[in-house]
Amino acid sequence: MTKIRSATRMALSIGIGCASLIWIAAAIGLVPDPALEQGRSRIGTARTLAVNVATYAENRRQVNLKKLLERTVESDDNIVSIGVRRTNSEQHLMTFGPHVEYWNLDHRNDAAKQISVEILASEQPWGELEIVFAPYQFSGNILWLSFPFGLVAFVFTASSLFAWVILSKSLKYLNPSNVVPSRVRSALDTLAEGLVLLDGNGEIAHANESFKKITSSIGEDILGRKIGDFGWQKEATELDEGMPWELCLEDQQRVARHVLSLTLPDSTLKKFAVNATPIYNGEEKVRGVLVSFDDVTALENKNSELAKIIGSLRSSRDEVARQNERLNFLASYDPLTKCMNRRSFFDQFEKYWNDEDCKLLNLLMLDIDFFKNINDTHGHSIGDEVLVLMGHLLRESVGDRGIVCRYGGEEFVVLIPSITVDQCESFANDLRQLIEQSETSGVKFTASLGLSCRQFIPMDAQHLLDQADESLYLAKGSGRNKVVRFDKRLEYKELIDKAAVAEAEQGKEIPYTAVTGLLSALSFRCPRTAEHSIRVADMSVIVGEQLMNRRELYQLEVAALLHDVGKIGVPDSILHKPGPLTKEEWVVMRKHDDIGAEIVRSALSSEKIAHYIESHHQEFSADDVGTDTVMLMPLASRIMTVCDAFDAMTNDRVYRPAMSEDEALQELERNSPGQFDPQVVSILCEHVRSGVHKPKSEVGRPVFSTQQANAIGEHIEELYVAVSDEDVEKIKNVVQQLRADASGDSQVDEVANRLDDAIGVTPQADLEEVLNLANEVMQICRESRNTFVQTAESIVAD
């Protein structure tokens, strides 16, 4: 609540006293009544005018009388109208102004409104003079009240203002310190802390010498000043609160240890601990405040420095905690995939294994299929993206149900307790499908999974891991992109044997002269089929580059070139029939796959390529995933099936015209995954629709002899092996041999020169550039081989 200053209170008291005296004087009649005086004046005016009217009446000068009364009404603003009436007559002899309208017999002798005066002529009643006056400005009680009120208001305002000015000036010259005895002042001056005595308005009544030193006001007269005028500054935490002495006066309670700052004239900043205590009078009312100022500048500065040190230590502690957390993460997790590393995984694995309550414990081992081919084809940065995505998919899928570990390279391990092996197998298949549907930077990939669990009675934790690893080996060896349980491993025995044979064949060279001879024989028997085989091989290589390593890609190319070689054993009447085949003829025609497989086994001694040819007419079905049907249909066969169907649909047959490429692609997509592998179809569609599709067999090449063609064909296999092994020196040697065998071929010379520049004097070269150049050389070799076959066909046709 805002307090009124003493000078103001005293001035108002004086004003009220003066106004009261005026009211009393008016009440006892000491103040003149203007209404009464005006009434007397009007009566005198009426009598004087009546005498003049009587004079004119005696002399019978009515004309002069009219002029007199008319001038009187016009000249006197207080007179509204005048009327003259003869004695005992109700009619007026004459009127001036709106007399009839305003004259009222009930108020004939009311001086405030109208007056009637008898007119005597020759001492005899002659008539009456009637005068209507304008009303007073105030009348009756209102007149009596209004006049003193204005006077009282004026006296009150003027006296209060005058008294306030005089008192405000005068009180400044009074010495407030007189309220403090001299002995008390002397005692207060001996105190080291600043001490101030304030009155109820916050004005200084006394200040000791210490306070004057604090505020640099020694020698100045600070008594009567507001203590808030010194420029005190509050701490940031107290900005919303008032000053200590204000709080003390308002709450009438002691206020302690408020810290205030004061900037001295020399720009020095001082800090004070301020205490305020209320001072009571005999009636227990607060009359002032005693305020003490304790200089705590040094202490506050030390506290500030200490706070900075503590803040710095806290920041250092937090940084150390963050670094420790990061070190713990780096020590326990793989930084690329954010999955647990092997060391931390084995610590957790042992805890689960040794937990007697953990009866259900499943372990999944995963491996990304053809990961090396992804690195070779798209680069290691894309390979890292694949690893990151794999880690993300595993962590999101497993969540809090288990532990995900990057076991090494592209291998991951997942430990899942508290569920049955059947539930874990279902989870693994869902995870496999999720991985198959994912992609990063346009690259799709799959994974093979091996599953084992505590139920299969492993001897220890490592044995459980070995069981899962063995199951993973079976999943990869039987076609990849599948889940294999350890308890079902015997079902894969035949596939394991075939995989072992295939592995043995990888190190064995395929006699390319035999491949060329078989392709030439097919060209002699059916040139159109040979051209079809070359186109299928070209497309199969394009698709296989994204799904296979180099060794497997070479085997795919050979299998695609010879996939219809069995038609050599089909009778001409069926092979060259100009119309559709009958059911019996189809039975004979379908035997060409088995015939071709036997020819390949005999000529090339390759069980793997023979198996590709036998399997390429099987139908792929999503319902068969995880069954022997898919296991027995290798990836190479699935690629050949799609490319074979596409080329057959986009080329004329004697019994139907060719489809457009777009129509053929739509047909493949409609029958995927019912008949064709959807992943293979997707890659082929993307390539054809990109606009760069062009059968490589159409590119013209120089014509070589049979000996040169066979040598070039052998170099294709050698380059495949060298590129697969990333053997730069071997690549260089093969290209140099190719340059010698294909002498005069400008394309071979140009690529060989670029390869020499890339390798330099040592094999330490840019591997990616060398591999790209080697791929160009392989493409040149394919074109040369195709040109040789087409030339042979032309000779046969002639």
From TrEMBL:
<feature type="transmembrane region" description="Helical">
    <location>
        <begin position="12"/>
        <end position="31"/>
    </location>
</feature>
<dbReference type="GO" id="GO:0005886">
    <property type="term" value="C:plasma membrane"/>
</dbReference>
<dbReference type="InterPro" id="IPR000014">
    <property type="entry name" value="PAS"/>
</dbReference>
<keyword id="KW-1133">Transmembrane helix</keyword>
<feature type="domain" description="GGDEF">
    <location>
        <begin position="359"/>
        <end position="488"/>
    </location>
</feature>
<feature type="domain" description="PAS">
    <location>
        <begin position="180"/>
        <end position="225"/>
    </location>
</feature>
<dbReference type="GO" id="GO:1902201">
    <property type="term" value="P:negative regulation of bacterial-type flagellum-dependent cell motility"/>
</dbReference>
<keyword id="KW-0812">Transmembrane</keyword>
<dbReference type="InterPro" id="IPR003607">
    <property type="entry name" value="HD/PDEase_dom"/>
</dbReference>
<dbReference type="InterPro" id="IPR035965">
    <property type="entry name" value="PAS-like_dom_sf"/>
</dbReference>
<dbReference type="InterPro" id="IPR037522">
    <property type="entry name" value="HD_GYP_dom"/>
</dbReference>
<dbReference type="GO" id="GO:0006355">
    <property type="term" value="P:regulation of DNA-templated transcription"/>
</dbReference>
<dbReference type="Pfam" id="PF00989">
    <property type="entry name" value="PAS"/>
</dbReference>
<dbReference type="InterPro" id="IPR013767">
    <property type="entry name" value="PAS_fold"/>
</dbReference>
<keyword id="KW-0548">Nucleotidyltransferase</keyword>
<keyword id="KW-0808">Transferase</keyword>
<dbReference type="InterPro" id="IPR000160">
    <property type="entry name" value="GGDEF_dom"/>
</dbReference>
<dbReference type="GO" id="GO:0043709">
    <property type="term" value="P:cell adhesion involved in single-species biofilm formation"/>
</dbReference>
<keyword id="KW-0472">Membrane</keyword>
<dbReference type="InterPro" id="IPR006674">
    <property type="entry name" value="HD_domain"/>
</dbReference>
<dbReference type="Pfam" id="PF00990">
    <property type="entry name" value="GGDEF"/>
</dbReference>
<dbReference type="InterPro" id="IPR050469">
    <property type="entry name" value="Diguanylate_Cyclase"/>
</dbReference>
<feature type="domain" description="HD-GYP">
    <location>
        <begin position="507"/>
        <end position="700"/>
    </location>
</feature>
<protein>
    <recommendedName>
        <fullName>diguanylate cyclase</fullName>
        <ecNumber>2.7.7.65</ecNumber>
    </recommendedName>
</protein>
<feature type="domain" description="HD">
    <location>
        <begin position="529"/>
        <end position="649"/>
    </location>
</feature>
<dbReference type="Pfam" id="PF13487">
    <property type="entry name" value="HD_5"/>
</dbReference>
<dbReference type="GO" id="GO:0052621">
    <property type="term" value="F:diguanylate cyclase activity"/>
</dbReference>
<dbReference type="InterPro" id="IPR029787">
    <property type="entry name" value="Nucleotide_cyclase"/>
</dbReference>
<dbReference type="InterPro" id="IPR006675">
    <property type="entry name" value="HDIG_dom"/>
</dbReference>
<feature type="transmembrane region" description="Helical">
    <location>
        <begin position="142"/>
        <end position="167"/>
    </location>
</feature>
<dbReference type="InterPro" id="IPR043128">
    <property type="entry name" value="Rev_trsase/Diguanyl_cyclase"/>
</dbReference>
